[in-house]
Amino acid sequence: MIIVGAKGFAKELLQIVSIDMGLLDDDIVFFDNISSDLPSKLYNRFRILTSFKEVEIYLLKSEDKSFVLGLGNPLLRKKLFKQFMQLGAQPISIISKNAEIGNFEVNIKVGATILSGVKISNSVNIGIGCLIYYNSIITHDCIIGDFVEISPNVNILGRSNIGDNSSLGASSVILPDITIGNNVIVGAGTVVLNDVPNNSTTVGVPGRIISKENKI
Q1: Please, which contacts does 183-191 make with residues 24 or more away whose CB atoms are closer than 8 Å?
Q2: SS3 81
Q3: How far apart are the first and last CA of the chain?
Q4: pLDDT at 216
Q5: Residue set of the binding site
Q6: Is the peptide bond before 74 cis (omega within 30 degrees of 0)?
Q7: How does pLDDT run across 125-177, given as a tens digit for each residue?
Q8: What CATH topology corresponds to 2-92?
Q9: Which residues are annotated as a binding site for substrate?
Q10: Carries keyword Amino-acid biosynthesis (predicted)?
Q11: Over 80: is that where the pLDDT of 215 sits?
Q12: What pLDDT sits at residue 23?
């Protein structure tokens, strides 16, 4: 399995992949073609691939073609998701054994990562490549778009709709029946009382729009 990324969030995913899933050290590799301060092996145990050429060689030699997204930024997740698909890698979803997922009408699309303490109720759709961080709650009849980043302790209440590529800051609250557009940034601690249009940034209690210039 390839964990795309080798810092920050990638290290947190390692806990699930190594401990929850029980993969051996040799079955886990990381990818980082940007950082110049990394060792050849993370924790002196896990190999780090540093170019797409190395990824191609790894995929040719390995029976396991799976990859997971170990980075947070929605647009970067989307970009690397497409690049790894083009290389022939196969995205999978990673869900902590300590997450609580409803049993009825919950649809989690490929490439999602769901960490410990997350609670997802029934009748919820989770899009491609989403990241749902520790202790966030998504209640009934919510729709989460593709490559959405949901930071720790976010609460998304009933019948809300979160657009593609949006990022919800830590401890933000989305009240019921709210629509968040595509490519929206919701600041940490924001309480969203009204719909938020595409490409906007909203902050504060109650949330107020401070920009409509986010770029996709």
Answers
A1: 183/74, 183/214, 183/215, 183/216, 184/214, 185/214, 188/151
A2: helix
A3: 29
A4: 56
A5: 72
A6: no
A7: 999 999 999 999 999 999 999 999 999 999 999 999 999 999 999 999 999 99
A8: Rossmann fold (3.40.50)
A9: 72
A10: yes
A11: no
A12: 87
List CB contacts of 172: < 8 A, sequence separation 6 or more: 151, 154, 155, 186, 187, 188, 189, 190, 191, 192
Query: Residue 21: which pLDDT band, with cuts at 50, 70 and 90?
Result: confident
CB 71 within 8 A of CB 43: no
User: Facing residues of 137 across strands?
Assistant: 119, 155
Domain residues of the chain, as ranges? 2-92, 95-208
Q: Among residues 3, 147, 131, which one has the least CA distance to residue 67?
A: 3
Letter string b/e over residues 163-201, b meaning 16 or more CB atoms within 10 A of that residue's CB: bbbbbbbbbbbbbeebbbbbbbbbbeebbbeeebebbbb
Catalytic residues, by residue number, are 140
Question: Is 95-208 in CATH node 3.40.50.300?
Answer: no
